[in-house]
């Protein structure tokens, strides 16, 4: 663990919650295949060009399409979402800001909160099969979560980026690395004015490569 204070302080998970949104959607039988049509673009032009078109589940996950996963959360509904959040359990369980944005930082609104340490432990329980998600749901997630393959192993992860009212940014990367002999789960959070999910991902990859785990 590096920077124990940051690692154990809860904050908004941003788009790393797509990991759990996906699993819950799969358990509800809304998601069946990485290549299924998932997001139908509503014609609203958004600042990220990759979001301005129809997307499969795999494509939406890789470009972190917020409106696509907001649609999924609305389809799940608050009652089912709260049940799954409690079963895991996930962070402080606060869904009070709304079913389609409780994982995102919003000025003047609360969000669900979780620490990097809790994220890493939850991911460890997931890959060990200790959470109430079926093998088929986990396998679907892993297919869309694959980031990098090397002779040494496979890297699975999800980024997250958000802006705080303090003016600082959050950059997340949460996942696991699998080699032929071992599995390692992680959660990286960078908090600074120039932080982003891409920064956290690059930092994590560098650490894993330097340690011989990837």
Strand order of the largest sheet: 3-4-5-6
End-to-end Cα distance: 19 Å
N-to-C SSE string, H for helix and E for strand: HHEEHHHHHEEEEH
The named CATH superfamily:
DD-peptidase/beta-lactamase superfamily
Structural class: alpha+beta
The biggest sheet, with number of strands, parallel, antiparallel or mixed sense and barrel status, is: 4 strands, antiparallel
CATH top level assignment: Alpha Beta
Extended strand count? 6
Rg calculated over all Cα atoms: 16 Å
Give the CA-based shape. globular
In short:
By secondary structure, this protein is an alpha+beta fold. It is built from eight helices and six strands. The chain has helices at residues 4-7, 18-27, 57-62, 66-76, 78-87, 116-127, 135-145, 197-210; strands at 37-39, 55-56, 146-150, 153-163, 169-178, 183-192.
Q: Which labels suit this protein?
A:
19% strand; single chain; alpha+beta; 36% helix; Beta-lactamase; two-stranded antiparallel ribbon; 214 residues; four-stranded antiparallel β-sheet
